[in-house]
Amino acid sequence: MTHWQKYADENTYYVLVDSKPEEVVDVDNPNKVFCTAYVDTASCILGVKNANLPWLKQYKDCKTLDESIQVIDKLTNEITNGNFHQLKVFTMSAKFSTIDRNGHEFLLGAEKEISGLVIEGNQVKYNKHKFNIHKAKMLIWYNFCLCNMATSLVDSTLKWHKRRGVFLIDRLGDSDKRVQKFMKAIMFETSLQELWKRCAENHEKKPDWIGFEFPAQHNVDGAVIPAQNSMQGSLVDWIVLAAYATHNGQENRDPEFQGKLIKLVEFLKEQGAINGIHITGDMRWA
User: Fold this and answer.
1) 285 part of a folded domain
2) Which of 8, 93, 155, 272 is most open to solvent, judged by the fewest CB atoms within 10 Å of its CB?
3) pTM for the complete prediction?
4) Is residue 217 part of a domain?
């Protein structure tokens, strides 16, 4: 059973982020589209109209196709009926070939800027930690995506009169802290830091800080909030799955299930509740 967690405190506005598929560049499927999404909703502060959703779980926790179909049907109904206040979705997507190419250039730039980061063949070393280069490319791309989604986070942070705006992101497939350290090094010690700073440049008033944290680092009343047990964690999981399914066609999914995912994205578009950027070209590092 999931619970709605307000994910807000006196000074901070939080938004959950998720992505599909796994956060590693898939060089064997260069035309497959990788999607990152965040779901912004006033429910994070106001709460939801109906908090009794014991059936709501993340896609990976559904044990059968029938259960997956039941969950997407019920979730679509809740969204259609306005259970989540002021729902707003932002997505960024790109083919793995685009991420592979740009991620490589980004890593070359980061290698010049971060002390202790070295590219050695198919590995990237950062201090004592080693990453497969395809994982490192995705982590730096993910950071780039967050930078480009941050302007909207600034808008919500100021709207709710908060001083800090924070993306809460998944552990990115790692159970230890090494990914978190690498992600923070990319944010604070490279040229991407300027992108983070510029996300608020068009605002007369600016938050004190905009960035990201990991759910396990976020405490409320002394208790860690596991994102997978939060209702909005499940909400963003399904929405990014729907965006991913829309970009990648039928794949091997059941046509009925695929159609329901696409229908959810179409409804969000009709409501003006979803915006996205699909990147195809080459990005400049600095």
Assistant:
1) no
2) 272
3) 0.89
4) yes
